[in-house]
Amino acid sequence: MDRKKFLKTCGVALVGLPFASAILTSCQSIYYASSNMINNRLVVPLSEFKIIKKSSTAYRDFVMVKSTSEGFPICLYKTGENQYSASLMKCTHRGCELNVGGGIYSCPCHGSEFDAKGTLLEGPADQDLKTYKTTIDNENIYIELS
């Protein structure tokens, strides 16, 4: 291969790699977990994070929970061993519904970004996301809505 062709191939690969990564990351499907409302708490079974395949078990990083009282879904993110963060999927800038993936929440309207715990990473938003206290027992995760 001559030098010019080699440089052209490397250039295309370097430019295309980030786009390919973004496309593959965005292919992760959004899973809506089943939940119940009991005493102003959303109750989500821990089993909603399990993905059972033919011969193996994997675990989701996050699940979405529908909340009729909030008007937007709540993302329940596993942030550590028996630790979960619950954030309202409403951008604090202009109220657009956020996207989730790659460990961050991103606003498709104006580009604000938040980490998995709802902390603002990049504006134009100037506030963290609305988050909820979570507790856990042997079977369920509880999201305190009040």
Short descriptors:
36% strand, 146 residues, alpha+beta, Rieske Iron-sulfur Protein, 4-stranded antiparallel β-sheet
Distance between the ends: 66 Å
Oligomer: single chain
- Identify the strand order in the major beta sheet: 1-2-14-13
Annotated CATH topology of the largest domain: Rieske Iron-sulfur Protein
Largest sheet: 4 strands, antiparallel
| Beta-strand proportion | 35-45%
Mean pLDDT: 83
Q: What share of the residues lie within helices?
A: 10-25%
CATH architecture group name of the largest domain: 3-layer Sandwich
Number of strands: 14
Q: Give me the strand/helix succession.
A: HEEEEEEEEEEEEEE
What global shape is seen?
Answer: flat
Radius of gyration (Å): 19 Å
The CATH superfamily label of the largest domain reads Rieske [2Fe-2S] iron-sulphur domain
The CATH class label of the largest domain is Mainly Beta
Q: How many distinct helices?
A: 1
What does this structure look like?
The chain starts with a helix and ends with a strand. It folds into two domains: 1-29; 31-144, Rieske Iron-sulfur Protein (3-layer Sandwich). It is an alpha+beta fold and 146 residues long. The protein is flat and about 70 Å long. 16% of the residues lie in helices and 36% in strands. It contains one helix and 14 strands; from the N terminus they run αββββββββββββββ. A hairpin with a 2-residue loop joins β6 (74-80) and β7 (83-88). The chain has one helix at 3-26; strands at 36-38, 41-45, 50-52, 57-59, 62-65, 74-80, 83-88, 99-101, 104-106, 113-115, 120-122, 131-132, 134-136, 140-144. The chain has a four-stranded antiparallel β-sheet, with no helix packed on it. Strands 5-6-7-12 form a four-stranded antiparallel β-sheet, with no helix packed on it.
